Amino acid sequence: MKLTLFAASGRTGAHVLHQALAAGHDVTAVVRNPDAVTAPVRIVRADLAAAETAVLKSAMDGCDAVISALGPRHHGEYGVASRGTRAIVHAMTAAGVRRLVVVSVAGISTIPTPSRPNPPKRDPGVGFFTRTVLSPLAKLRLQKHYEDVALMEHELRVSGLDWTSVQLPLLTDKPATGHYRIAYEQSVRGGFRIARADAAHFVLRAVGMPETVRHSVAVAY
Ligand SMILES: NC(=O)c1ccc[n+]([C@@H]2O[C@H](COP(=O)([O-])OP(=O)(O)OC[C@H]3O[C@@H](n4cnc5c(N)ncnc54)[C@H](OP(=O)(O)O)[C@@H]3O)[C@@H](O)[C@H]2O)c1
């Protein structure tokens, strides 16, 4: 397949890049710092906080699918997930590319967005302890990021594209296992972690899974 990968320099994006190349895919990597990618791939430079549609479109002309592992490196970059994804969607529409798989966050489906002003109050995959203790603690620190990622999923929902959001729990840098569970439109029950390498494995798998189109799919151990 011909793939265009956004944020190939990130910790999850790098796994996606290397696994895609190992599987024989033709990858164009879109990054803001080309020096961060040493793999022998075509590189397009773009800052997704202020990207030009023409530049993004040039990175995806003729590709079969677009993958994004975009996210903020620090607090000051909150907002980049929704803004960058909106730019990716515009460029895909201009380029006539339909398939998009993006990395997202588990548990954000209960956050209201313009396209889901009344989301479900409870995530059926989240147990009592997580709902009452862990999630409120995480929200204290990451609320702005969660709101940005929820807005990113809103951009997907109104895009008209064949999107999938891969919702991730706590990420680790352990080796890939190839064994994980998935859940549609809810968190994986009792699934608190996944290695970035396994998250990348599922992201690539999801590209070829039509049953994941227009769904949020959580992945965890
Ligand atoms: N960390 C967790 O435990 C966790 C849990 C659940 C979900 N997630 C989700 O998974 C995402 C990916 O996680 P990760 O650990 O792989 O993230 P990461 O290593 O911080 O990678 C973020 C990527 O986004 C890129 N990026 C950020 N701002 C950009 C901009 N303005 N223009 C172009 N590229 C930009 C970064 O580029 P540079 O290399 O140039 O900085 C990098 O490639 C997170 O953002 C989060 O939404 C994370």
Automatic annotation (TrEMBL):
Q: Which Pfam families does the UniProt entry name for this protein? A: NAD_binding_10
Residues in coiled coil: none
Q: What is this protein called?
A: NAD(P)H-binding protein
Q: Highest taxon of the source? A: Bacteria
Under Gene3D superfamilies, the record lists:
NAD(P)-binding Rossmann-like Domain
Q: Residue ranges of the NAD(P)-binding domain?
A: 8-208
- Protein species of origin: Amycolatopsis heterodermiae
